[in-house]
Fold this protein.
Amino acid sequence: MDAWRREEWAKALLAEDVGGGDLTTEALTLSGRSGRIRFSARGNYTLAGVEIAERMLQLCGLRAKRARYSGQLVASGDLLLEGEGDAAALHAGWKAAQTLVEALSGIATAARAIVDAVEAVDTNVRVACTRKTFPGARALCHEAVRAGGAILHRAGLGETILVFPEHVAFLDGASLAEVAARLRRQAPEKKLGVEVGSVAAAGEAIGAGFDVIQLEKFSPALLAEVAALARACKTPPLVAAAGGVTLANAADYVRAGAGLIVTSAPYAASPREVQVRIEATG
């Protein structure tokens, strides 16, 4: 994540939690007291979001430094991040930073598990995570899956061309070959992707010259049929498995011939635990 975007997220997350002040800290008049905060892993997982959390503590006025980095595998008890400074600032940054790292590390760990399962079969096949994240949190979720070793399928609608049956429904009966020809004229520098729901439609898309054939909710056996059709081409298209792809079946799709795994499964992962200790330092 770019530094400017990290700054943007750090400010937004703090504003959401302490934009109206901290009534408890103010009532106890803790400002002016010195303390230390330490974030440690509670369990083994792939870390994510720690750079944003570090900046959050710094924006609160703390002297903060991370001990690990996003994408790193951490073990239970490992120090992740620490900060020193005013007690009020410690409490202002505490919970929002902890929650962020826990949530993003859960997503990163789930992504890493799928990546490992896929690469155990074929190291050339990548796991691409979709834009089906919780609305408003796409950049953070994408940061997490990248920390887990995945790539982005489509960060947004303006990034790639991917034709769905819902697009074709408005094209007055145009064949996929006609659709591909129109797209080649309009966007000659772009690769063309199309999502299909049957082996017959996949065969039509291959014949039309699409670069990426995305198979929606195919079984591994049906994907294998499409992969065989693709291999018969002089320039085989990329065959992508999508829809319902999880840790449980991702490797099966690769064995069947998928050249790309498309999934949104990591976004539903449970958070990983971060232990936080705050202490007075005199």
In short: The mean pLDDT is 96. The radius of gyration is 23 Å.
